[in-house]
Amino acid sequence: MSAPHCSPPPADLPPDDVFREIFLRLPPDPSFLFSASLVCRRWRRLIRSPAFLHRFRAFHRTPPVLGFFQNLWTLPTGRRIRFVPTTGPATRISLPPGFPDWVLDCCHGRVLLYSYSDRELLVWDPMTGDKHYVGAPPDLVGEDVAAALVCAADHVDHTDCHSSPFQIIFLDCREDDQYWVCACVYSSETEVWGSCAAITIPSLVSSDSSALVGNSVYWKIIFAEEDSNHILEFELRSQRLGLIELPEGIRENYMSDIHIMPAEDGSIGFAGVSYSSIHFWSRRIDSEGVAGWALLRIIDMDKLTLSSMPAGDMFLWSSVVAFARDSDDLFLQAEGGIFMIKIRSMQLRKVREASGSAIYPYASFYTRGCDIVGIDDIDD
Predict the structure, then answer these.
(1) How many CA atoms lie within 13 A of 313 on its CB side?
(2) What single DSSP character describes residue 279?
(3) pTM of the model
(4) Same domain, yes or no, for 79 and 50?
(5) Contact 205/221 with Cβ under 8 angstroms?
(6) Which of 138, 232, 239, 286 has a 20 to 30 A CA-CA distance from 339?
(7) In terms of domains, do 91 and 40 share one?
(8) Per-residue pLDDT, 378
């Protein structure tokens, strides 16, 4: 009579440190940590650990673009905001209740919101839930506004700025016999607004985007007047406003508009679509101190592929609508929808059907504690 069959004892599982090293090397897209956290309670505990999440941010350094915010105007509700995820269903961001009006900027994992009715600003961190309410500057007109949110911490690595001090550069645009813009800076360290600087401008300032390069913040002037071929500069140290003229022929060459963004060489620049190409410009200063514009790079959109298929004519009448300052993702809006292009790898993907609203990319490591898995009590 044969001996009864006995199952071999279960093999010892690797220690926690081995799993941590494996999880550390997963791509920063939240869907990967989300999937791993659903395997068992042990993995979920390791992934939720604040120490591991801190290491994860330090290891990857460049946060992924989780999605973008859009300002919408609909009847009968009026102004409202929506968040469009670009990394799958694992990313869940809900707007703070009671503050529904308008997005003005996103910076290093925080979002700047503005309430037209209350004349109040909110710096909101979707990952930590932290909210910092700021009353708008005194003597505010507030009908045409723009703003930039800037991290004021003295460090180079901005992957973990959730509790760092910040500044708000707030622009109040006014129109009487001519256009005016007033700029005022709020510091979270002093909790007060500074004095205002003012300058006449050829047209209103576009609130769709701002770009921080060095110690200056830049906005585009709307192409509404004949002499509106400029961008606006605010120098943070001197707190002075100035105008920078764009190259000749910009309005004619880029009829679908341009987008202000940091250039690849570290200067201020812009991108625009001309027929089937994306042009990237930079403002350079030569050896004699003379500033001028230079065309740095051209991307031929006819060579881009979507799901291994040529992009073809899908980018007819397209325009650059956003650039994620914390990554290299460029957003294009075309008749067929909104597309993301990774500038370095030239990867292209569609993220939404056509939409006419401005977008504000939101980049951060998705580290919302237990919400990183989306489900708190899952049976193993």
Answers:
(1) 0
(2) E
(3) 0.86
(4) no
(5) yes
(6) 232
(7) no
(8) 38
**Distance between CA atoms of residues 279 and 250, nearest Å:** 11
Q: Give me the amino acid identity at 306.
A: L
CA dist., res. 275 & res. 9, Å (int) = 67
Query: Rounded distance, CA 378 to CA 363, Å?
Result: 28
Would residue 42 count as lying in a domain?
Answer: yes
Residues contacting residue 19 through CB under 8 Å, at least 6 positions apart? 42, 43, 46
Q: Please report the DSSP string for 330-350 in residue order.
A: EEEEETTEEEEEETTT--EEE
Are 346 and 329 contacting, i.e. CB atoms less than 8 angstroms apart? Answer: no
Same domain, 248 and 285: yes
- Cβ neighbours of residue 55 closer than 8 Å, sequence gap 6 or more: 20, 24
- For residue 33, give its domain range: 16-54
90 and 158 share one domain: yes
DSSP for 48-62 reads: H-HHHHHHHHHHH-S
| Same domain membership, residue 21 and residue 38 | yes
How many folded domains does the chain comprise?
2
